[in-house]
Task: structure prediction
Amino acid sequence: MTEPLILLPAMMCDARLFGSQMVELGKTRALHLPPIGGHETVEAIASEILAGAPDRFALAGAGFGGMVALEVTRQDPERVTRLALLDTIAQAELPAIAANRDPQIARVMAGLLPEVIREDITPEDLAPGPHRQAVLDLVLRMALDQGEGVYLRQSRAMQRRPDQQATLRRLKVPTLILCGAHDRVYPLPRHRFLAEMIETASLHVVAGAGHFPTLEQPEDTTHALIDWLER
Result:
């Protein structure tokens, strides 16, 4: 029986991040997209996901969703049949970066969420191309729809997230590491590091994409996910 697939979007994103992928992947399996903005720690978010998840499932997470996916895998590895990590990292937040989030949190609490999001995600975080502005506009719409509360909780979860390098070393399931070739947020060397730590990992670099390959190069990203699911 084909296992269901749980998709976990990036920070301040929703199902629209995986829109093109869901059309194709949903033809052959059940898809689940649980919320990941309800708690201030990745541990609590992962516990909530596991409480509502199928007995066994494939798991894919992008950005912050990838960090949550690693915590899901750490908490209950026997239920995860395969894992995909898209444009993410496994390390805990560096103290300097964690401290830099505090002024952003204060500005969002003062009603400046749109300005903070525009500063967080810039055109340079995406690959050059004719669709760059459309992708940026969609990312902003998703963020504004998620709202201030989700931003505050996810930011605090990012600050407090645990280091998952030991989780990577224990992985024995088919694992896809995928990133955009132009990703400046989590560049390619970080993804090579992830792949090297996992015995069963394959690395797929999406040409013509930056930090949002599911939106920038949806066909290439979808094909990589299908190959991973059929391994």
In short: The chain is about 50% helix and 15% strand. The beta strands are 5-8, 31-32, 57-62, 80-86, 175-180, 201-206. The two ends are 14 Å apart (CA to CA).
